[in-house]
Amino acid sequence: MRKVIFYILISWWLVACNSSVISPEMVDECPPIYPDYVGVTIPATIAPMNFSCLDGEYERVDVTVTGGKSGEVHVNDKIVLFPQDEWQSLLKENQGDSLMFTVCIKKEGKWKQYRPFPMYVSSYPIDYGVVYRKIAPGFEVYSKMGIYERDLSTFEERPLLENTMVPGMCLNCHAFNKTNPDHMSIHIRGQHGATLMQIEGECELLDTKADSILSACVYPYWHPSGKYIAYSVNNTRQSFHAVKDERVEVLDLASDVVVYHPETHELLLSPLLQKKEVFETFPVFSSDGRKLYFCSAEAKPIPEAYKEIRYNLCSIDFNPEHGTFGDRVDTLIHAAAMKKSISFPRPSYDGKYIMYTLSDYGNFSIWHKEADLWLLNLQDGTKRPIEEVNSEDTESFHNWSSNSRWFVFSSRRGDGLYTRLYLACIDEDGRVSKPFLLPQENPWEYYDRSIYSYNVPEFTNMPVELERRKVERGIVSDKRIQVKVRQ
Fold first, then answer.
1. Could you tell me the pTM of the whole model?
2. Of 254 and 275, which is predicted with more confidence?
3. Up-side HSE of residue 25: CA atoms within 13 Å toward CB?
4. Which of 166, 174, 173, 164 is nearest to 144 (CA)?
5. Which of 108, 241, 271, 454 is the most buried (most CB within 10 A)?
6. Torsional sign, CA 123, 180, 188, 465
């Protein structure tokens, strides 16, 4: 028996010696890791920032993470997977400080130790989760897609709705009120089309198509009071480019902006937002609810002049007490004069900024390689590209956290094909941190194998409550509440 125990101990010792870092070669450069997490700023509740090493074939990787205040986590394995509990404790202990990562890689029996790199743990909290649509490639018919919720503190992802529930269903345009899922809108296209609206647990399926508007309501944005929700109505077409670097174009042949009042099931219209000679789209309310921002372009013939359609950022006053609009439209940014076009304006909830996407033309920038994120300062009117997060590929849809200290955005920077989600921090003075890719348990394997694009990310401050089977029955029943236009 003693001999058995002796041999077991010897075996453990040999394995330990084989995996221990012994006399490493010092390399004066950061380790080649995926994702690039070197120097990023993270919230103190984020899931473990696991990464993969891209140093070719290797036998083992050793990572020590040391807290600037206290604590340490050590991993020695083939892949870098930090234990959830130890990781969360380390972040909590070092909130407002930093972590230092020391990475060693063993190749051909020899260790190399790379230059340590920092990761900063922000004092700003982040919301519970992110809701997004994941969609597989497909243009002619609706491919596999769904609306999913991700807990940002773990790797847990759960479906809210998937188009496999009802054949031919397309899911898009989900929105919450200032990250609160108690006010939710989701648009459903297909044979059983509807707008799903849930307010404080009460769920309705709406028919938002009326005789005096162009289409059903899309591109939603809630009024901060929760009493209204703005939509655009669009006559949209899809076309395909014949040139190598341009794939798909989504065009509006016509578009207007409306506001819906859930309490009365009425659409509120303004003649200033219903002009045939103007395309209006992507409406959003200001943080105080007294302005409605939107994108506006001079209508031009399609498809002949589609590259000449450029959207400006405009606003109109809104009176939430009476549900009425102002008597003039103001232009905040005349992008067309710069031969540029604005899409996806998103005001920060603290009233300081509007983040928007700037591209060369059109309003559907998700396939525009030149599309970048910009920031308008509402206090002094200055605007700037967010160079800290922009890349050489597409930056597109984006949203703010409830405290306006974090934002999430979609980018094609990884491979030029699929949109992935990135998060970044912005402090009170407008300084923006280096963005980081949404963490996954095994990131290289996950993203390399995934055929899904992420889009329309929305923060949520608590889990979404949605009765999937009840919604499914409602969708296939074709029972809808018909909205009406306020006269």
1. 0.92
2. 275
3. 11
4. 164
5. 454
6. positive
